[in-house]
Write a structure and sequence with these properties.
about 100 residues, mainly beta, Jelly Rolls, 4-stranded antiparallel beta sheet, about 60% strand
């Protein structure tokens, strides 16, 4: 995946002691995305806006808030999280890389 004509924020978003790291990019039309890495572990994230998480490398298991089901996602797959909600993400081995798109404004 490649994004042309973007501006990037140099300061990283660092969570859980460096186990999840992302950088924010701004696309020409005003859209904002984050490009990130999730190292092995289990982490919970809350959402303000709805999000679409596209897995670009590796794999993760995800359970959306309010659900009992956990689903595994690999490179080329994506999941969406409703606004004002959250999800639990687990990486068992390797590094999971993702692109997060913020849906709606």
């Amino acid at each position: 995946m490649r994004f042309d004509g973007v501006s990037a924020e140099a300061k990283a978003n660092v969570y859980f002691g460096g186990k999840v790291v992302s950088h924010t990019i701004h696309l020409p039309g005003g859209e904002r995305k984050t490009l990130g890495l999730v190292f092995p572990g289990e982490f919970h994230f809350g959402t303000g806006q709805a999000e679409r998480m596209e897995i670009t490398d590796g794999a993760c298991a995800v359970r959306l808030d309010g659900s009992d089901a956990t689903r595994t996602y690999a490179a080329g797959e994506a999941f969406e999280v409703p606004a004002r909600s959250g999800f639990l993400i687990r990486v068992d081995a390797g590094i999971c890389q993702y692109v997060c798109s913020f849906l709606g404004r």
